[in-house]
Amino acid sequence: MRRRMHAEPTKSEMNGQVSQPSWRNRLNMAIYAPAGAGVIALQAVILLAMGLPLICACGNIDFWHGNPSGPETSQHLTDWYTYTHVIHGFGFYLLLWLILPNTSFGLRLALAIGLEGGWEIVENTPFVMDRYRQSALARGYMGDSVVNSVFDTLATIVGFIFARIAPVWASIAMVVLIELILGYMIRDGLTLNVIQLIYPSETISTWQTGG
Question: What is the pTM of this model?
Fold first, then answer.
């Protein structure tokens, strides 16, 4: 009986993906999970050094704050805009899957945390905050509290992991659903947020304030 010279390719190999042994996956997560946590800790330290408050100036730490335009927006742990950071996670997953398809999930997650942490720092610079204030819903915006910013990054992680384990159609449906809910509930969302940041529209601002 002749010995086979070449093993038949597995399904994952035929699809251009080589599965890693479970021990290697565990090793990757053992390396990249602390790296991701370190990035979040560095994000918090930098934001504190920039003068952002650790918690809301009101002195409370609420898990949920539902007023999208009040002075306590982006000051508590979560609010309506937390959901936009879940969408960030979907976007980062797609981006890193496209440009780094052969890297481990742990590395891509750590990179996504770094991207989100970097954005959280940029988002709280005076220039970007001034741009936000040109939108009607953000005219009193004073930046994030550090705990809110950290929870935004955690929301991004949730979106990234969901994109990893869910079918593509479910990820797309979730993004559309979040945008529709935010549009209905607060007349805002990630898409409108980006538009108002790049090219503020008085028409959108008027609609957002019920005019």
Answer: 0.85
Alpha helices by DSSP H, listed for 50-145, are: 82-99, 105-123, 126-132
Q: Give the pLDDT confidence of 28-71 residue by residue, as tens digits.
A: 777 888 999 999 999 999 999 999 999 998 999 999 999 887 78
How many CB atoms sit inside 10 A of residue 173's CB?
12
Sign of CA pseudo-dihedral 126, 131, 135, 137 = negative
Contact (CB, 8 A) for 196 and 204: yes
pLDDT digits (tens, 9 = 90+) for 60-95: 999 999 988 778 889 999 999 999 999 999 999 999
Whether the CB-CB separation of 155 and 85 falls below 8 Å is answered with: yes
Q: Are 100 and 169 in contact (CB under 8 A)?
A: no
Q: How far apart are CA 44 and CA 182, in angstroms?
A: 27
Three-state DSSP class for residue 173? helix
